[in-house]
Amino acid sequence: MTSFNEYNQDPQQFPFLSSLKSAWQAIKEEFSGFMAHSSAEEQGIAAQMMGPQSKTIRTKGAKKYSAFGILFQGYLIDDYIRTYNIEYPSCGTTEAATKVQALREQYFATLTQTVTTVNQANGNILRNVYFGTFHPGLDIKLHTNDNPHMYRGYLGLIVPEGDIAMKICHDKLYWREGEFMVLDHSYPHCPHNYTNCDRTVLVVDFFKPHKPRKEVTQFEQTQVAQRMQDNPYSLGVFGQSDTAREADFVTYGLAHQLEWDKALGS
């Protein structure tokens, strides 16, 4: 039986997640259908314009993590691009928003409808919803996410057997297909994938229900403004404050990771 605590929350506390859990097979099929039937150009658009890019989270070797999604800071991805006037090397704001809206509507209708319905019924509690894939060999350095206002839910979609897990504090947690894991990422954590297969989950960030909504909304607005100034391609998800203290590496038996930066280079 899973032992829940301050950083590993019981998903049943959050009934608004049940709609996503109930639709997990359809959501998985939408992801698999996109990966199997979309063109190289469409996959490039998803990776470049629909996925949060981090400049701070470090991983060993080549990039082994990919992500793209439909909701960021409570906005559908096309509305987010328009709201923040994001421009890309290949196209401007209007063209980028049009392209991602077309992909969202063509490939992710069930996910879009489910997320929209949940937010309409729960005061826009969902903030970010995106697919996160760990490719074989992924090993991310210990870090924290400066998100004290939200929890991060993971709905397992494609989870291979083997050593693919999330180390958070002193726990090692495993994803399960069709099940939610809900973590507080303000605690030190580092995931890995030591299998030969991809692992894909639906990442669902949501406001902590016990915190006053005005307080968390104001914090998000301030935080996202700074993150977008630092890196507009972060989509407000990652920022420069997403770091662990040196003491955390020692506390959780990962002091050797302090040498990673030397091996990784700039």
Q: What does this molecule look like?
A:
By secondary structure, the protein is α+β, with helices and mostly antiparallel strands. Helices cover 35% and strands 21% of the residues. The chain has a single domain, classed as B-lactam Antibiotic, Isopenicillin N Synthase, Chain (Jelly Rolls). The chain is built from nine helices and ten strands. The protein starts with 7 loop residues before the first strand and ends with a helix. The model has no long low-confidence stretch (mean pLDDT 93). Belongs to the aspartyl/asparaginyl beta-hydroxylase family. Pfam families: Asp_Arg_Hydrox. This is Aspartyl/asparaginyl beta-hydroxylase domain-containing protein. Residues 23-209 form the Aspartyl/asparaginy/proline hydroxylase domain.
Entry summary:
This protein has helices spanning 18-22, 24-37, 40-49, 77-83, 93-107, 109-121, 213-230, 246-251, 260-264, and strands spanning 8-9, 65-72, 75-76, 126-134, 150-158, 164-168, 171-173, 180-183, 189-193, 199-207. By secondary structure, the chain is α+β, with helices and mostly antiparallel strands.
